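Form 7-S
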Amino acid sequence: MNYSVGQVSAFAGVTVRTLHHYDKAGLLSPSDRSHAGYRLYSEADLVRLQQILFYRELGFSLDEIAAIFEDPQVNPLERLRARQRQLSEEIARLQRLAEVAERAIEVQKTGVSLTPQERFEVFGEITFDLSYATEAELKWAHSQGQREAMSRAAAHTKEDWRQLMGEAAVWRAELLAAFDEGEPSNGERAMDLAEEHRLHISRWFTSCPPEMHRRIADDFVADPRAFALVVPPSQQRPGLAAYTRRAVDANAARHAGGRTDFEEDR
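Output:
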């Protein structure tokens, strides 16, 4: 028995336009035509359409589906296993995003509910980019330090944030002074500032050993959003992020009792 394009559209829950597209793409051409030239689909065509819709539901592209149908060397089972792995990874990623959203909700509920005026009073020009926060959460999703930092941040009171940001402002002023006065990034003054920043993180967020501090400082250079959490753009100077990263590196080497792998080149 043959079926018209309208009947197949109703059976399968797809539009006539989609069926025409599959025909044009060579994925599903009707087996017959009526005397008037209309497309007619056979039972075998319907089985093939069912397979196409199954693969589409799993996220396969039309090219991938065509390869499965046309190439006898393609193993559909292996393709399905690969798609299963991809879907599992995507599910895990979305679950982590859901956890980020849940934590953000908790922060909003329990941490620092401020009016715009109060927020400016406490944070000044420092702004927290939500896209960076989400990416950082995904990047460090399996890190105990990240989980501890998020938990402690959520528990901070307004007065905690006021004290934290006050300390950060004093430190930032000293960093800018050292940079502007030409202090070498591997000198005692810059390394002491790096150490102060490391201890600040440990005091307010999570234990920050030197190697972790190095990874944090790498982000200062790699991502402007990260360095903006330390020095707002209006106060930044060309080369300041790299200078800070080198100071952190020198301080970490000092803790290890070794030497840095660079000469001063601020």
